[in-house]
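From the pipeline queue, job 12 of 40. The input is one protein chain; the requested action is below.

Action: predict structure.
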Amino acid sequence: MAEILNGKELAKKIRTNLKVEVEELKKQKKYPKLAVIMVGNDQASSIYVKNKSKACDEIGIDFEEYLLPEETAMQELLSLITKLNEEKEIKGILLQSPIPAHLDIQKAFETINPKKDVDGFHPISVGQACIGQDTFIPCTPLGIVRLLEEYKIPIEGKNVVILGRSNIVGKPLMQCMLKKNATVTICHSKTRNIQEITKQADILIVAIGKPKFITEEMVKENAVVIDVGMNRLENGKLCGDIDFEGVEKKVSYITPVPGGVGPMTIAMLMQNVVKATKME
């Protein structure tokens, strides 16, 4: 039976430590403040933003929310980002995705000042990560690495297989794992013989948004499996991209959904806001 990688507990510990750091920063007259922009009324996004607000409140980070209507024009969005770039008290800017299809999210990310890019999506942050420079790393990949480190799971020399090549998880996670000297394989919708590849993984990380896609037959004995998926079934229950009940019996470590990667993502966002505040 697998040991559970408890992201909820670790995130709680990280937030406690960050609260102390924030108190120290305030003594130095440095005040962390996060601005979150949300365009439209995506229900899942509303929940994520609420959770981010709660985490900021707990740690002592000021939080400002900008809710823009669905029909917001691109120029309005860019003007708001530019305004927040110029406001000295704003230390981090986050654009909640997804945004409406008529808006260019990449252009929006590029407009955020790289020094306030706490999500790590600006091309400068991405490039710096690729060449191993200190920069903002996207929060989900950063949280996954932190979780593995907490449980003393070795990464160096291991076969790491990542399902999903998004700019938010798959690609930055690949860079994180390469930096830790893993051998990395990325699978996606055009990959052939996925099952043969996943069965080679010492560490399997799945971020494709397909409920219970990874089954017991697709993992090797004693592998470490990380589930980034968050899917809602017809009965209203949440589940990940991994068939937890089947896979848990075979592997050495597994993340639950919910309570695994999700809380770590928010904890790493808080860490990045504190980092941005220290950089000023």
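Job complete. The CA atoms of residues 92 and 191 lie 37 Å apart.
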